């Protein structure tokens, strides 16, 4: 992981810091999912279920979640935009963290078809008779209020026509996000009359274009309300996904949801976003001076001993950990090794065993780095014999290794395991293993370093061996799905080590923040030098690393 130093430069902000418009006005939108209820009652349950599985059925699934929309969250991101030239991207800069909202993020969030438009498509359909029956001008698409006027009479219509009315409502509300008095463009509205043509059309690209176009033309500082079009809910979910921890605090994550758009069941809790970001930065406070002095004095003393013929392994240990990037004698001098990760995990373990633990729950554990290393090394043998070494049972019962004894049994007393995992021979990632939900969460600070398929393979010692361990240690009556593997999830929207070389520090900070119940706002390359000093001083103070 070769590195290069340098400070990031961003385009100018849309508004200067301190001059961002407050949300004194109302943000309007017409992507009102509550309007779908009347449509559901009119088209009937059979049609509703068919619409749910259509190309735009994600809108119905989102409506069924009944999550809470938050205009304040969205407004804060919009007024912190960067003034960029790209017409189909939105960039925001929040506490030195740049966040991009583009077609790629929209597709990932919604799961809607965002393929390019087929410019050479030769397609048409006879549509006039249906518009006449609906009392809609044949040269224009329908309005939502015209569709709603049909609700009392369409209950006796053929299923095919009820489906078409339902699809038009979904387009108006969920895709275009336009007012009830605005028309759906005719060339798109008539696609509801041809199921194949409707299904293959990239409605996600339509919804994204409408949303971003409305963002680009809005003026936020004038003292009147402003309106967004398109699927605005994708924008809110992008915010939840982009600022780790924010969604968990102000919404409720749904594990293993079909797409991120369906991953959040919101609450009504309010947020002052600037205060939220400011509070989150406090957890990256500077190292206590007295602790730093101790470790620096130790390094000096140890190096002096080296001149007299004594070893300097301890000094090298701390120098590797605390030296800033510009002071590295070689490009990989500051890469953290097993001994550094083991010392940090030992420190976290000791903190968890304190009577007044700083962590958010007593039901967490930090497996020893050397135990995890043995776990990975034993995977090949496990694949041949399907047998687990005895030390796995001891670890399950909180009795192994000796310096990590907790007396807490996994599942009974421990829900979450936090561990650091060395992958690809040159990279550290953090793992959060949820034993109850059987999910392995991967936090990777350089997502481009290891391809996703390779990362899944690197996690197989856990996804494959944990079910076997649970089958061995848990009463069979309580194991309803003994053959189920642990689910693998790799997070996309977390702070990245843009100047590679600090994946070890990022991994330890991910673990520490997760255990404390914090999100990662404020974690960036800019604060890593301070984090190195802090980690070295705390390890020396709490673990007294000597080799």
Key traits:
single chain; 547 residues; alpha/beta; Adenoviral Proteinase, Chain; two-stranded parallel sheet; 11 strands; 44% helix; disordered N terminus; protease; Papain-like_cys_pep_sf; transmembrane
How does this structure look, described?
This protein is of the alpha/beta class. The protein folds into two domains: 31-116 and 131-269, no CATH class; 284-542, 3-Layer(aba) Sandwich (Adenoviral Proteinase, Chain). The chain is 44% helix and 9% strand. It has helices at 36-43, 45-52, 58-65, 71-79, 103-110, 128-134, 144-149, 159-175, 186-189, 195-200, 203-217, 232-242, 246-250, 273-281, 289-307, 313-322, 338-352, 369-377, 379-385, 390-396, 452-458, 460-473, 503-516, 528-542; strands spanning 27-29, 89-94, 97-102, 226-228, 251-253, 264-266, 364-365, 416-423, 427-434, 439-443, 487-490. A five-stranded mixed beta sheet has the order 7-8-9-10-11. A two-stranded parallel sheet has the order 1-4. Helix 2 packs across helix 8 (159-175) and helix 15 (289-307) crosses helix 16 (313-322). It is globular and about 95 Å long. Mean pLDDT is 85; it is low at 1-7 and 308-312.
Terminal CA distance reads: 25 Å
- Beta strand count: 11
Shape-level CATH architecture of the largest domain: 3-Layer(aba) Sandwich
The low-pLDDT segments are 1-7, 308-312
* Adjacency order of strands in the biggest sheet: 7-8-9-10-11
CATH topology of the largest domain: Adenoviral Proteinase, Chain
The total count of helices amounts to 24
Fraction of helical residues: 40-55%
Global structural class: alpha/beta
- Give me the Rg, rounded: 28 Å
What is the number of independent domains?
Answer: 2
- Write down the CATH class of the largest domain: Alpha Beta
Major sheet details: 5 strands, mixed
* Shape assignment: globular
């Amino acid at each position: 992981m070769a590195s290069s130093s340098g400070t990031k430069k961003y385009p100018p902000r849309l508004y200067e810091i301190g001059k961002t418009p407050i949300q004194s006005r109302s943000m309007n939108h017409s992507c009102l999912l509550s309007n779908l209820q009347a449509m559901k009652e009119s088209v009937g349950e059979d049609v509703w279920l068919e619409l749910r599985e259509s190309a735009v059925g994600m809108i119905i699934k989102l409506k069924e979640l009944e999550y809470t929309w938050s205009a304040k969250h969205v407004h804060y991101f919009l007024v912190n935009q960067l003034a960029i030239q790209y017409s189909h991207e939105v960039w925001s800069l929040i506490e030195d963290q740049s966040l991009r909202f583009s077609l790629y993020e929209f597709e990932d969030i919604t799961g809607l078809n965002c393929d390019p438009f087929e410019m050479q498509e030769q397609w048409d359909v006879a549509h006039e008779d249906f518009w006449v029956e609906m009392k809609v001008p044949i040269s224009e698409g329908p309005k939502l209020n015209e569709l709603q006027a049909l609700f009392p009479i369409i209950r006796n219509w053929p299923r095919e026509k009820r489906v078409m009315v339902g699809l038009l409502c979904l387009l108006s509300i969920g895709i275009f996000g336009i007012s009830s008095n605005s028309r759906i463009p005719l060339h798109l509205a008539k696609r509801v009359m041809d199921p194949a043509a409707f299904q293959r059309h990239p409605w996600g690209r339509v919804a994204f274009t409408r949303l971003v176009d409305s963002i680009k033309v809005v003026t936020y500082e004038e003292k009147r309300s402003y309106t967004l079009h398109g699927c605005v809910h994708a924008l809110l979910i992008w915010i939840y996904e982009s600022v780790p921890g924010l969604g968990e605090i102000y919404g409720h994550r749904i594990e293993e949801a079909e797409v991120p758009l369906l991953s959040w069941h919101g609450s009504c809790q309010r947020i002052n976003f600037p205060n939220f970001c400011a509070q989150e930065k406090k957890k990256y406070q500077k190292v206590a001076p007295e602790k730093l002095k101790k470790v620096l004095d130790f390094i000096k003393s140890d190096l002096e001993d080296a001149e007299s013929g004594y070893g300097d392994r301890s000094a090298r240990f701390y120098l590797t950990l605390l030296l800033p990037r510009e002071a590295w004698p070689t490009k990989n001098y500051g890469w953290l090794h097993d001994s550094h990760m083991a010392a940090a995990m030992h420190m976290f373990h000791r903190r968890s065993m304190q009577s007044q633990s700083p962590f958010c729950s007593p039901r967490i554990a930090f497996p020893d780095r050397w135990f995890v290393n043995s776990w990975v090394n034993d995977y090949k043998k496990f694949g041949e014999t399907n047998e687990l070494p005895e030390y796995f049972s001891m670890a399950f019962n909180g009795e192994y290794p000796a310096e990590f004894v907790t007396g807490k049994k996994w599942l009974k007393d421990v829900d979450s395991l936090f561990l650091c995992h060395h992958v690809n021979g040159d990279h550290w990632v953090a793992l959060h293993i949820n034993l109850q939900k059987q999910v392995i969460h991967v936090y990777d600070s350089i997502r481009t370093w290891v391809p996703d398929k390779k990362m899944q393979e690197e996690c197989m010692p856990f996804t494959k061996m944990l079910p076997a361990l649970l089958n061995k240690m848990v009463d069979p009556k309580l194991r309803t799905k003994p053959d189920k593997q642990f689910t693998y999830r790799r997070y996309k929207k977390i702070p990245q080590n843009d100047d590679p070389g600090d994946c070890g520090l990022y991994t330890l900070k991910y673990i520490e923040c997760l255990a404390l119940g914090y999100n990662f706002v404020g974690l960036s390359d800019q604060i890593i030098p301070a984090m190195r000093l802090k980690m070295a001083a705390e390890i020396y103070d709490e673990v007294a690393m000597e080799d």
